[in-house]
Write a structure and sequence with these properties.
- With about 100 residues, the chain is α+β, with helices and mostly antiparallel strands.
- The protein is about 15% helix and about 30% strand.
- The chain contains one helix and seven strands; from the N terminus they run E-E-E-E-E-H-E-E.
- The strands form three sheets. Strands 3-4-5 form a three-stranded antiparallel sheet, with no helix packed on it.
- A hairpin with a 2-residue loop joins strand 6 and strand 7.
- The chain is globular, with a radius of gyration of 13 Å.
Length: about 100
């Protein structure tokens, strides 16, 4: 998943996060998640292995990269005032919302 909540339950995007902002929480189940920030994959969050929540599961690195780049492109547009990744609308979760 590209978005998680910080300790004050504010939404934070993986590419804007840092380890010093931990702990992070899943936006769906509110359980703690791991911040993965290596040099190969897009920076993202993942559940601990014992978690039952499936939010963000099975997304390829290309899918996460595409969501990130689409959101970044929309944020540069002058007519876009807000852009969110993995935005919840009722029971649905969009990849990108602007």
């Amino acid at each position: 998943m590209l978005a998680a909540y910080d300790r004050e339950y504010r939404s934070v995007l993986g590419w804007e996060a840092s380890p010093s902002m931990a702990p992070f929480y899943c936006p769906q189940c509110r359980d703690p998640v791991i911040f993965r920030h290596g040099q190969v994959l897009v920076w993202h969050f993942a559940h601990y292995p014992e978690s039952k929540c499936r939010h963000g599961e099975n997304e390829s690195s290309w899918h996460m990269y595409s969501k990130r780049e689409l959101c970044r492109a929309l944020q540069r547009e002058p007519n876009v005032s807000e852009c969110a990744v993995e935005y919840q609308i009722g029971r649905l979760r969009t990849d990108v919302f602007a």
